[in-house]
Each structure stands twice: as C-alpha cells, then as structure tokens.
Fold this sequence. Notes:
Helices cover 55% and strands 0% of the residues. The protein is mainly α. Helix 1 packs antiparallel against helix 2 (19-30). The longest helix is centred in the N-terminal third of the chain and has 14 residues, at 3-16. The relative contact order is 0.09.
Amino acid sequence: MNKPRLKLRYKELVRAGRLEEAQIVLQKVWNYDGDSPVEKPELKKPKVKKKEESLKDLQKIKGIGKKTLLDLERLYTSLKDLKKDLDKDKVPLRDDVVNKLKKYFRRR
C-alpha cells in the first residue's frame, strides 16, 4: 500500500469509528519510507446477530396465508407460545395447517 492509500484507509477507519485500527494505520503513515511493504491490520469480523423470528415469518410457509396468519396472531403473542401448543397438540386450527407448522419447526 502506498502512502495516499494509507491516508485514505485511515480516514475510512476514523469515519467508521474504529479508532484503534485507525491509530495503527496512522503509525504506518508516519513511519512510511516507501520501500518496505506495509501490512494490513487484521480486521475483526462483526458479529452477526440472529434475526428474531416473528409470527409474520410463518407466512413464507406454503399453505399459510394472510387469513391463517391473522388467526395465529389472534391466538398467540409469540412463536414460543405457538411451539408449546404445537407440542401439546392444542392448536385450534385445521390439521393440515398444524402439520405444516410442525414440519416447519422440526426443520429449525
């Protein structure tokens, strides 16, 4: 990396709020002599948070449409409650819908 690229990298890191990495790059800019290769600082991968599921996610199951989803939303406040009732076989819906829901939750 040449000196202008190092400076640009420094600015990008400062804007992103990654000050520790920016400080390392800044040290390399100050000590840059043009002959020695400059190492890239090791970048930490951001941790990906798991997306929370909601009852609306169930609509992507084939055979569960808007009306069934509305019924589920009236009956249950969360997926946790729905899963409990599915395990106990106490879901007041048609058998084919219950079977689809069970199959969906078994895969997860």
